[in-house]
Structures are given as structure tokens and as C-alpha cells.
Fold this protein.
Amino acid sequence: MGLMRLFTFALILVLCDTETLSGDGTLVLDYYKETCPLVEEIVRLNVEIAVVKEPRMAASLLRLHFHDCFVLRGGPGWDVLLGRRDSLKASLSGANHFIPAPNSSLETLISSFKQQGLDVGDLVALSGSHTVGMARCISFRQRVYDVSAEEHYDPYKRYTTFRRILRSICPKSGRDNELAPLDFTTPSRFDNHYYTNLLQGNGLLGSDNVLVTEDHEGVIIEQVWAYASNQKHFFEAFAKSMVKMGNINVLTGNEGEIRRKCRFVNS
């Protein structure tokens, strides 16, 4: 199963108004087999259509999965465990506390992932999701104009072309919502070019670049090199880490609900 199948379950709420409970409180592969056997194919089709109309939708759904667990045709494949239910409440403070900021240090990133039971290997693998999607100017402005940060990302100032491109998109002030691709090389394709970009000093966000600039022991850089050199290796690691992340803070049975409208708790 690829990324597309994972994303299809974002629409299950609309198609399967079911209150089936997983008996032992765990996620299972065939959760909807009896109550809504065609849900995967139905939702897959709808999501594929949505992504064709707006390729950025794939990245948005991937980020949605990340946010939900942490508080495209193509790409890696894995079996998705089902049965995860929606929370009965939302937490703005939790989102601000647990979701790393785009200018986070490596130490902060490692700490944030560790709080969720994820290790450094998961951090590097899941960061590869930035091979698709866009970021707002306000998220990478510091990386472009902060002199100390600029020297930190590229002490030899070799990659002035990339900085010039970013500055043309994101001025020192204003245009906060202007968008730039997280991966300038292949922005609409899920591949391993994110890691190649990092090794060239061309990561868009500060939190991307610290994977290579703040890794004093070299363990993370070694993993970045491995993924940049072998896309299949990256896909395998990404799939394993996605399954691991999908089991964070799981609500099953009466602990949550299947919302009829994603933005609102059922009345």
C-alpha cells in the first residue's frame, strides 16, 4: 500500500458512519471489513481526484497525519492499521508545544520526537516527508536573512544562488504567506531528493538544515547520506517510521468518536 492508501482514510468519516469498536483497544488492518468493505476503494478514488486537481493536497494530508499522531501515486508502501478514532477535544497549547517549529534546533527536534516515543532514526526518516509540499515565507525568512543563521547553514557561502531564489520569493518584510516548495528539485514527487538538497545546503527550513549542520557526532549525517544514495532504503525506513508514528496516542473504542464533520465534535 502506498501513500495514497494512507490518505484515503481522511474521508472515512463521511462514507462510513460506523461505531464498530476494536475489541482489545488496538488498531487492526481490516477494521472496516464488515461495516464498510468498499471504503478503501471509494476514498482512494476521491483522494486521487483531489490530488490530480491540487498536487499540494498529498502533502497537506501527510502533515495532517503527522499532527494527529503527534498531539500520490508513488512513494513508499506499507499496511495501515485501522481503528484510530477522533479525539473529543482539541488542544491549541498541545499543538504549539509538541509540534516542532520550522526554526527548531536539532536538540529540540530530538527531544520532541523522544517525547512521542520516536528516536533519531525516526526523526531523519520522517523528515523526508518534506520532499513534497510547500512552506510559507514566514517559516523560512529567518533562514534566508539572519546573517548568523546563514553562516551556520553554509559557512563557506557556496550556495548563493539558492539564497537569491529564496529572497526573490520572500522579502525581508511582507508577503508572509508567499509559498516556496520544500523540495525545489522535484516539488511534486515523493522521492529522496530532500536528502540530496540537505547535503548541498539547499534545505528550505532551518529545521531541515540542522540535520546536517548540528550533528556533531555524524550519526544523522550518515543516515542522510544513506537515504540520498538509496531511495529504496529511504522508502523502507519511512514506511516503518510512519507505522510507528501511527500508533502514537491512539484512541479506540469509547475513548473517542468517528466525527461526522472533521472540524466539529459530534453533537
Summary: Residues 1-23, 69-73 have pLDDT under 50 and may be disordered. The first strand starts at residue 134 and ends at 136.
